[in-house]
Amino acid sequence: MPNPAVVQKNCYCRLHSCFWKMTPSLQQLFRDYLSNWQIYKNRLVGKDGHCNIEYGNVGYSSRFAYMQDLWTTFVEIRWRYIIVLFVASFTLSWFIFGLIWYWIAHDNGDLWWQNPPSDHKPCIYNVFGLTSAFLYSLETQTTIGYGLRVLSPYCPGAVSIIIIQSIIGILINSFWCGLVMVKIALPKKRAKTITFSKMAVICPRNAALCLQIRVANLRKTLMIGSQLYGKLLRTTVTPEGETIILDQVNIDFMADAGKDNLFFICPLTLYHVIDKTSPFFKIASDTILQQEFELVVFLDGTDESTSSSCQVRTSYIPKEIGWGYKFLPIISRSKEGKYCVDFSNFDRVEPVPTAHCASCFYNGHNQHHSSRNGIENQGFEVIEIIDQISANEM
């Protein structure tokens, strides 16, 4: 009979070995991070819609234009800078007016080291130094009014200063309240609840070869007047020999009901027909990775809750386009007659027989691409689905 201690030790060693085999090494994680970072640097628009572009050799006159449009500059800067400027603006204003109150008290002989006589009439009661002057400035601008430091009627100039400080304090409060409200209500925040599929696919649809993407609205409130369109960015050379970087080509996307005023109540699968007028017509399944382009997709709409217009965008590079796959259905209907959306299938695909190229498809050549592992596009990952297709069909 085997020794239980030895058996337990062997089992532990096997589990430990399996764990380290399943866990990616630090070197592999670092290599994946560098690969993803390189992909991010090489694309103009990130998956989250952020534009990766730098401006160089901007003249000082152009930089001064940012100060002329000060409101937009404040709206666009990051929250951490907003917080720093918020604290600095109030603290600096309190300190500047504290110096003014200190100068008034000094000019009137109110400070303790000036030894005022017993019948002295101060401009500000209980202001004896710089600290008390700063506290009086803070209490005045924030309308705290503890009652210890009070302005006397013996100094008309001090009355003018308190009026000026009160007005400036109201302006500062109004500016920051408005700025915070605008930044909270930015339409860009609404765009966070609209998501695109991580991958695009190319497969037959309605007797045509189509490039398909999927988009979903995570809120139940609708986007009114939604329009989706795309731009293909690539480097082209004109017949005159001129190289155009980021040449833009229009890509039309549509749903079965059309391409304008989408009824965006549930996730939609939109498609672009690859015909002779499409820039994808000459691309084949084995040459797509050799292409250098970026497909930027835009969704414009108006939120029905706030009536604010917003734009959502994402991009796809050749590595993120799967040739010969289609999206799995995600809308089903329960026994109670309720429509359900299964977001676990939002990015999932399955292989389908697809022609090798658009020309082969329309000419009727039976050159199909149905590889289970996506050989022609190594960057595209197929997710195995077990008995989920029939469960999601309506």
UniProtKB/TrEMBL annotation:
<protein>
    <recommendedName>
        <fullName>ATP-sensitive inward rectifier potassium channel 1-like</fullName>
    </recommendedName>
</protein>
<dbReference type="GO" id="GO:0034765">
    <property type="term" value="P:regulation of monoatomic ion transmembrane transport"/>
</dbReference>
<comment type="similarity">
    <text>Belongs to the inward rectifier-type potassium channel (TC 1.A.2.1) family.</text>
</comment>
<dbReference type="GO" id="GO:0034702">
    <property type="term" value="C:monoatomic ion channel complex"/>
</dbReference>
<dbReference type="GO" id="GO:0007399">
    <property type="term" value="P:nervous system development"/>
</dbReference>
<keyword id="KW-1133">Transmembrane helix</keyword>
<dbReference type="GO" id="GO:0005886">
    <property type="term" value="C:plasma membrane"/>
</dbReference>
<keyword id="KW-0812">Transmembrane</keyword>
<feature type="site" description="Role in the control of polyamine-mediated channel gating and in the blocking by intracellular magnesium">
    <location>
        <position position="173"/>
    </location>
</feature>
<feature type="domain" description="Inward rectifier potassium channel C-terminal">
    <location>
        <begin position="194"/>
        <end position="363"/>
    </location>
</feature>
<dbReference type="InterPro" id="IPR014756">
    <property type="entry name" value="Ig_E-set"/>
</dbReference>
<dbReference type="GO" id="GO:1990573">
    <property type="term" value="P:potassium ion import across plasma membrane"/>
</dbReference>
<dbReference type="Pfam" id="PF01007">
    <property type="entry name" value="IRK"/>
</dbReference>
<keyword id="KW-0851">Voltage-gated channel</keyword>
<dbReference type="InterPro" id="IPR003268">
    <property type="entry name" value="K_chnl_inward-rec_Kir1.1"/>
</dbReference>
<keyword id="KW-1003">Cell membrane</keyword>
<keyword id="KW-0406">Ion transport</keyword>
<dbReference type="Pfam" id="PF17655">
    <property type="entry name" value="IRK_C"/>
</dbReference>
<dbReference type="InterPro" id="IPR013518">
    <property type="entry name" value="K_chnl_inward-rec_Kir_cyto"/>
</dbReference>
<keyword id="KW-0472">Membrane</keyword>
<feature type="domain" description="Potassium channel inwardly rectifying transmembrane">
    <location>
        <begin position="45"/>
        <end position="187"/>
    </location>
</feature>
<keyword id="KW-0630">Potassium</keyword>
<feature type="transmembrane region" description="Helical">
    <location>
        <begin position="158"/>
        <end position="182"/>
    </location>
</feature>
<keyword id="KW-0633">Potassium transport</keyword>
<dbReference type="InterPro" id="IPR041647">
    <property type="entry name" value="IRK_C"/>
</dbReference>
<dbReference type="InterPro" id="IPR016449">
    <property type="entry name" value="K_chnl_inward-rec_Kir"/>
</dbReference>
<keyword id="KW-0813">Transport</keyword>
<dbReference type="InterPro" id="IPR040445">
    <property type="entry name" value="Kir_TM"/>
</dbReference>
<dbReference type="GO" id="GO:0015272">
    <property type="term" value="F:ATP-activated inward rectifier potassium channel activity"/>
</dbReference>
<feature type="transmembrane region" description="Helical">
    <location>
        <begin position="81"/>
        <end position="104"/>
    </location>
</feature>
<keyword id="KW-0407">Ion channel</keyword>
